[in-house]
Specification:
Helix content: 55-70%
CATH architecture of the largest domain: 3-Layer(aba) Sandwich
Number of helices: 23
Number of strands: 10
Distance between the termini: 78 Å
Radius of gyration: 37 Å
CATH superfamily of the largest domain: P-loop containing nucleotide triphosphate hydrolases
């Protein structure tokens, strides 16, 4: 019932069209009942001698035209009526298909829009623990299965229900005994549906899971093909793909076996029912309990009813697939979204930030513990530490990608938990070590942070990031289309374009999370000089392993094991025993060797 409510909610905006399509469907189904009655009348009362059995207005027309003799002399009238009704049926079916297709596409679009709107509001943690291939598979094939249900199967079900009801009514009014015979095996068909549905549902769920694994593998390896080639792992990865492909094939085979098992029984029952109707009908005509025309009409109705029942076999498979798809989409739609609440001041932030006793754990693993420091607007803070020491996590807490477990973080004196995520992300720009660029032009990538920014501002931001000259050397300059994830540019160019993205936003707080690691020392120095000139009171976080990058910072924090173990400026830390001085000495020695 919940799934039906979910589907009904998706029709909002096209419900009138949906209901109109149902009216067209009912009308066309009613027209399909007329041809067998015309055949019955002509066989029994025109060719035969049985009195006419028809509605009063039709009887009066027949008598006015000359009765049975007139129709016997003009048998083409019967054919013309059947053809005319058939043409009307076809016209109503055509408009029904057009309307139902429009409703289906609208619902498919609504589903995609709703899913995407929900995805972008999910917390960062969801994407960290969910394979991207799994998400992509659910956004493509599962929506396709639902759309197929709505465009064909749902309307086919409604059509079948209407046709079954009308055919059953016509069968009862035509011959009650044969109706009992025709419907005698229907309970067995229903029991078969109930018995097999669970098995097919499990088979399709397993098939969907294997498809997710295969899609995830393909997505990951298309993105990481350079690594595969660089390490000569093509043969090994082919074996891994082959194993996944075999498991996916096994899941497909299991689902096909379930369908074959179902259909073999269903078709046997269908043929038995048809044979029983024909055999008992022949006996009734021979005994004089029925007429040939009545028998022909009844068999037509019975065949139509049984054919509609057989459609339920086809549709049950599609419905089962769609139910599995709905469940998989519901898994995403049931995920709690980020809290959009919180204060969102109109004025931009000034950039005063304070951490007091902040702790954070991911699951059972403690990542940060007792982090305490404060900075004033316009200051630059450098952070140094080994991989996994918690440097990047600090920045993720600052923009509330994760919420800290203990302590307090304030921005301009306000607890950030009381500020909206949108406000924080408008005022705090972060550039990561491995930034993501879209397969769009350079200009579009930079202006994603500031849509509609004029060309002058784009170029100015690129100049601050020391990437303007590189961009102008591209074939199409700022209109050059980048490869997916920015693969057509170097790592240093990708980082600098991402810095330009952050600069053009004009955020009061800017965090460079090891985002100068792919540029040479001279370019690093030039970027920092440009950022300082462009700063205009901006608070800057510099996370780096290079001592030269951190040298000019107002405050340098040294992190080890999720704690701050040293703090001070470059001169103070250089005179203290600890990680900072050891790294400084190693880098100085390496520099001397390089120049020797």
């Amino acid at each position: 019932m919940e799934k039906l409510r979910f589907l009904w909610a998706l029709t909002r905006g096209r419900r009138w069209m949906f209901l109109f399509a149902l009216a067209l469907l009912f009308t066309s189904s009613y027209l399909a009942m007329i041809a067998p009655q015309v055949t019955r009348v002509f066989i029994d009362s025109v060719i035969g001698a049985k009195p006419f059995d028809a509605p009063p207005f039709i009887l009066s027309w027949i008598e006015g035209a000359g009765g049975a003799e007139f129709l016997r002399a003009n048998l083409w009238i019967g054919a013309a009526v059947i053809v005319g009704v058939g043409l009307l049926y076809a016209a109503f079916q055509y408009f029904f298909k057009v309307m139902s297709g429009e409703v289906s596409e609208f619902i498919g679009k609504n589903t995609r829009d709703r899913l995407y709107a929900h995805l972008v509001r999910l917390p960062y943690d969801y994407f960290a623990r969910t394979p991207s291939g799994d998400i992509l598979q659910r956004c493509s094939s599962d929506i396709g299965a639902i759309q197929g249900l709505l465009s064909d199967d749902l309307m086919s079900i409604l059509s079948a229900v209407i046709m079954i009801a009308l055919n059953a009514y016509m069968m009862i009014t035509t011959d009650r005994f044969l109706t009992i015979v025709a419907l005698s095996l229907v309970p067995v068909m229903i029991l078969l549906n109930v018995a097999v549905k669970g098995k097919m549902s499990r088979a399709f769920e397993a098939r969907g899971g294997r498809d997710d694994d295969l899609a995830g593998f393909m997505h990951q390896h298309v993105q990481g093909i350079r690594v595969v080639k660089a390490f000569g792992r093509q043969a090994h990865e082919r074996l891994r793909f082959g194993a996944l492909s075999r498991r996916a094939g096994d899941a497909v085979r299991d689902s096909e076996y379930a369908q074959a098992y179902y259909w073999s029984f269903w078709l046997t029952l269908f043929l038995m029912q048809t044979a029983m109707v024909i055999v008992f009908g022949i006996f009734r005509v021979s005994a004089g309990a029925s007429t040939v025309g009545t028998m022909v009409a009844f068999v037509t109705y019975a065949e139509s009813l049984l054919r509609q029942l057989s459609y339920f076999g086809y549709m049950m498979i599609s419905i089962t697939m769609a139910q599995v798809a709905l469940k998989r989409l519901d898994d995403i739609l049931g995920e709690p979204v980020e809290d959009a609440g919180g204060e969102s001041p109109d004025a931009p932030a000034k950039g005063a930030i304070e951490f007091r006793g902040v702790g954070f754990a991911y699951g059972e693993k403690q990542i940060l513990e007792d982090i305490t420091f404060s900075i004033e607007p316009g200051q630059t803070v450098g952070i140094l530490g080994k991989a996994g020491s918690g440097k990047s996590t600090l920045m993720q807490l600052l923009i509330r990608l994760y919420d800290y477990g203990s302590g307090s973080i304030t921005l301009d004196g306000r607890e950030i938990r009381g500020l909206s995520r949108d406000y924080l992300r408008r005022n705090i720009g972060i550039v990561t070590q491995d930034p993501f660029l879209f397969s769009r032009t350079v200009n579009e990538n930079i202006t994603m942070a500031a849509p509609g920014a004029p060309a002058g501002e784009v170029e100015a931001a690129a100049c601050v990031a020391c990437v303007d000259r590189d961009i102008r050397e591209f074939k199409e300059g700022y209109e050059t289309v980048l490869g997916e994830r920015g693969t057509t540019v170097s790592g240093g160019q990708r980082q600098r374009i991402a810095i330009a993205q952050a600069v053009i936003r004009g955020c009061p707080v800017l965090a460079l999370d090891d985002s100068l690691s792919a540029v040479d020392a001279e370019t690093d120095r030039r970027i920092r000089a440009e950022l300082q000139r462009d700063a205009k009171g901006r608070t800057v976080f510099l996370i780096s392993h290079r001592i030269d990058t951190l040298r000019a910072a107002d405050l340098i924090l040294v992190m080890e094991g999720g704690r701050i173990t040293q703090r001070g400026d470059h001169e103070a830390l250089s005179n203290q025993d600890g990680l900072y001085r050891r790294i400084a000495e190693i880098q100085q020695a390496a520099g001397r060797e390089a120049t020797a």
